[in-house]
Amino acid sequence: MFMFRSRRNQLTKQLVKARKRRGGDEGRRVSEGGGGGGGDDAKGLVDLLKKLKDNQLAMLSKAVESCGQFTNCVLLSRDLSDPHVLCCQTWRWPEVRHSHELRRIPTCRSASDPIYICCNPYHWSRLCQPESPPPPYSQFAMDSFNPEDRAPSEASIVCRDSYPGSLTTNGEESNFNGWCKLAYWELSNRIGPLHTVEQPHYNVFGEIPRGDGMCLTQLSQHSFSPPPTVRKAREKIGLGVTVSREEDCVWLYNRSGYPVFVNSLTLESETMSRSPIRLPSEHCVCVFNPARVAHQNYGWNFAEGPTVRPNSVQVSFVKGWGPGYSRQEITSCPCWLEIHLVPCR
Question: What CATH number is given to the structural domain containing 23?
C-alpha cells in the first residue's frame, strides 16, 4: 500500500512541477494539498487530482510530459465544473477561461460519451472564434527576414504541375474518391502525387517516428534538391496539421510549434479580406463551411498563383504570403499544402 501511495505522490508532484503557471508558494501549497491562500484555481486542481484514479493520474502525467504524443483519454464526470478547462489552464493555456474557447481534437475518442469528458489537455485545441479571426498577414509585414528567407523572384513563376483553375488538378479530380485530395508543394514544385483522404481526419506532419498520415520528409526524399529555405521550413513543421471533416464543415488543427497560414473562401468571408490568415500554434479554425461558400462571388482573377476555388484550401507551413508580405504568392512559400475538397453537390 505504501508503495502505491508513494507512486501516486510522485505522479502528483510531477504534474504540479509541469504546471504552466508556476509560482513558488502556490506550487508548494498545491503539492502539499493545502488550499489556504492559494486561490480557487489551486484548490480546484488539488480536488481534481484527488478524483483521478492511479492509472488516470499516470496517463495524465504521460500526456503532460510528452506534450500529448500518442496518449489516451483521461475521463472525468461531466457533472464536475469543466474539469477539461482547468487541465488546459494548468498545463497549456493559463489565459483560457471558458469551455467555448476550446475544441476537442478529432483523435479524441470520448466526444460522444454522455457521462464523461476527456481531461487530457492535449486532446483539446484553442478555437479561433469567428468574431475575432486570426490577424491577416499585413500586421506582420515589418517582420525581419534573413537574406536566405527572402522569397524567390515572383516576376515569372512557372509551376511544374501548373493546371488551369487549381494547381493540383489536371483532369485528376474526375475520378474523385474520398472527401478530399491533398497535394504537397515546395515552392512551385509539387512533391509526389495527389493523396486521397477517405478517413474522417488525416495528419500531415514533418518527420515523426510514429503515427499515421502524410510524412512530408518521406515525400521529399525522391524529389529535387531543395534550397536551404525549404529544408529549414520543413524541419519546423513537426506534428504539422490535422485536416478533419466534421459534420458539414472542414476544420484545420495546427499541431505544429509554429504558425501556419491559411486561405479559403470561408475565411475570406469572415475577415472581409482576400488575404490569408495566420493560424497560431495549437489553434484550430473552420476552413470550409459550405453554407458560407454558397454565398460567395467566384468572379475573381489572379495574375499568378492558385485560384481560390470554392472547394480548395491553401495552407503554408511556417511562412506566410499575401499583400504587405515578403512573398506575394503561395508558390513562393517553402512548404505548403493544397486541400482540394470534393465538389459540393
Answer: 3.90.520.10
**Is the same domain home to 170 and 311?**
yes
190-198 long-range contacts (CB < 8 A, ≥24 apart) are: 190/159, 190/160, 190/161, 191/216, 191/219, 191/220, 191/223, 192/219, 192/222, 192/223, 194/168, 194/340, 197/243
Q: What does 198-262 look like in DSSP terms, one character per residue?
A: -SSEEEEESS-SS-SSEEHHHHHTTS----HHHHHHHHT-TT-EEEEEETTEEEEEE-SSS-EEE
From 127, 150, 170, the end of a domain falls on: 127
pLDDT tens figures, 247-273: 889 999 999 999 999 998 888 766 656
For residues 283 and 261, the answer to whether their CB atoms sit within 8 Å is no
Whether residue 232 is contained in a domain is answered as yes
Identify the CA nearest to 89 among candidates 78, 76, 80, 102: 102
Are residues 193 and 232 part of one domain?
yes
pTM score: 0.78
User: Could you list the residue range(s) of the whole structural domain that residue 174 is in?
Assistant: 137-341
Contacting residues for 215 by C-beta, under 8 A, at least 6 apart: 205, 206, 207, 208
Q: How far apart are CA 58 and CA 63, in angstroms?
A: 9
Residue pointed to by grid coordinates 499544402: 337
DSSP secondary structure code for residue 153 in this structure: P
> What amino acid occupies position 290?
P
Instruction: Tell whether 179 and 292 lie within a shared domain.
Output: yes
302: left (phi over 0), alpha (psi -120 to 50) or beta: beta
In whole angstroms, give the CA distance from residue 278 to residue 132: 12
Report CA 245 to chain centroid distance, whole Å.
14
- Would the pLDDT of 197 be above 60? yes
